[in-house]
Structures are given as C-alpha cells and as structure tokens.
Amino acid sequence: MPRSKNKVASRARRKKMLKLARGYWGLRKNVWTVAKNHIEKALLYQYRDRRARKREFRRLWIIRINAAARLNGTTYSRLINDLKNNNILINRKILADLAANQPQAFSQLVAAVKS
C-alpha cells in the first residue's frame, strides 16, 4: 500500500504561511524555506514587542509627568507620593495626557496635592 502524504493539509499549511509573507521583498515572499524562516522571526518579534510596547509607553508617560512636574516646582517621585498620600487615584497615562494637553489643569492638580 502506498504511503499517505496528506498533500491537502501540507499545501494548506504552506499557503497559510506564504499568505503571511505577502509584502516581503525578493525570495522572502514566495520561496517556502526562506519565507518560513522570516515569518517565524517576525512572529517572535511581534510577540516580544507587544510586551515591550507597554514598557515603552510607561517610560514615556513618566518622562512627560516629570517634565511637567519640574515646571511646577516638584519632581515626579514627590508628585506620585503626594498623590498617593492624598488618595488621588489617577494613573500615569491620564497624568501624562493632562501634562501635555492641559498644563493649567495639571498645575492645579499639583497645587492641590502640595498643600
């Protein structure tokens, strides 16, 4: 009896991977082994960078809050500490948005927390 190779499923797997390779340059888009290697690497980067993006945004927010806090005569760490001591629950994303887009509101918040 001949060996079964399951050509339908094999072709489907390859088509699925080559579909992910659309837009790649040169042999990366249509040669199976080359495309497979580049897609696997891209998927690893994608997985890693979904987590890295969260860290990068937090760093950006902290930098923005610190810059605005220093314009108002305090530092980032003192501001966060004063917010916690006064039971004001505002996350860093919102604080950074206030600092960048509404500096007067941010100044009022800092003044309220300082006193």
**Fraction of residues in helices?**
over 70%
3D shape = rod-shaped
CATH class: Mainly Alpha
Structural class: mainly alpha
Number of domains: 1
CATH overall fold name: c-terminal domain of poly(a) binding protein
Radius of gyration from the CA trace? 26 Å
Order of helices and strands: HHHHH
- Average of the residue pLDDT scores: 94
Work out the strand percent: under 5%
Continuous helix count: 5
CATH architecture: Orthogonal Bundle
| Residue runs with pLDDT of under 50 for 5 or more positions | none
Q: Please, what is the CATH homologous superfamily? A: Ribosomal protein L20, C-terminal domain
Distance between the termini: 88 Å
Write down how many β-strands occur, each being a DSSP E stretch of 2 or more residues.
0
The largest sheet, given as strand count, sense and whether it forms a barrel, is:
none
Based on the model shown, name its key terms.
115 residues, mainly alpha, c-terminal domain of poly(a) binding protein
Describe this structure in words.
The chain starts with 6 loop residues before the first helix and ends with a helix. The protein has one domain (8-114): Ribosomal protein L20, C-terminal domain (c-terminal domain of poly(a) binding protein), CATH 1.10.1900. The chain is mostly helical and 115 residues long. The relative contact order is 0.08. The mean pLDDT is 94. It has helices at 7-20, 32-71, 76-85, 92-101, 103-114.
